[in-house]
Amino acid sequence: MLNSELAHVQAILQELYPNHQVSSIKKLEKGLSNHNFYFELDGTKRIIKFFADSVPHEALQAQKQLAEQGRAQSVLHIDAQAKIAVLEYLTASSYDVEVSETLVKTLVAIHHCNVLDKTKLELAYSLSEAAVFLNLDDLADKLNQQLSQWPNDTRYCHNDLVKDNVLQTCNGIYFIDFEYAQYNDLYFDLAALCCSFELTKKQQKTLLDTYYVICKSPLPNYAEKKLEAYIGCYLILSIAWYQKKQLEEPCEPLERLLIKWLEEN
């Protein structure tokens, strides 16, 4: 099957780049929603991404904005009909990534992207749907009620800040995989970082402080409580997503975090 996949990718790339040398095609295993293949174009490293659904044009436009700032990989080609995109390939210089000031600056840059499609993620609906799957309906109702008490801090969000989507390169921190990027509450991205990097309470407070210092804004008096609620939301949504796909390995640490979160809240 893999050989036929590679032959299919080879044919597409030869059609895209008829006067260039395409080599070293291989499938990348980390993509859970889409299929990604590494290849070299005249010796330059690239990725071709095959989208399971339609091409996320707005997200890729935001990624282009960030690439110009040196904060995301460049988008080199989009074919909506074939549902593919060709991207710059980024090489990690270290896999020991921490939630540093540099990382938070990259997040702030994403949150300040100007994207034409202002459609906001329907978090309350998604949370309720995930909670039904996990038999946590009462908890979702409680969280939705809590979130309604605080102001909306809507920004353009990445919405999928797992560790694999944060790369330390020789040129700095880059975020990848913008397929789920959409307007949402900025605390969802902050909660994702807290869970993905398993931040302590002290580290969570430092994250909040750093974020608002970079934004040159005062820390809201509701910030810590709102972040705590969004951590609960993020865990429910992520665990349900992984369980539906029967992916046990990435689900287990999140389930442990949810048990701990429930004990503390």
TrEMBL record:
Q: Which Gene3D superfamilies match?
A: 3.90.1200.10, Phosphorylase Kinase, domain 1
Q: Which SUPFAM superfamilies match?
A: Protein kinase-like (PK-like)
**Sorted alphabetically, which InterPro entries does this protein's record hold?**
Aminoglycoside_PTrfase (IPR002575), CcrZ_PhaseVar_Mediator (IPR052077), Kinase-like_dom_sf (IPR011009)
Q: Which residues form the Aminoglycoside phosphotransferase domain?
A: 25-211
User: Which domain of life does the UniProt lineage start with?
Assistant: Bacteria
Protein's UniProt name:
Aminoglycoside phosphotransferase domain-containing protein
- Source organism per UniProt: Pseudoalteromonas luteoviolacea NCIMB 1942
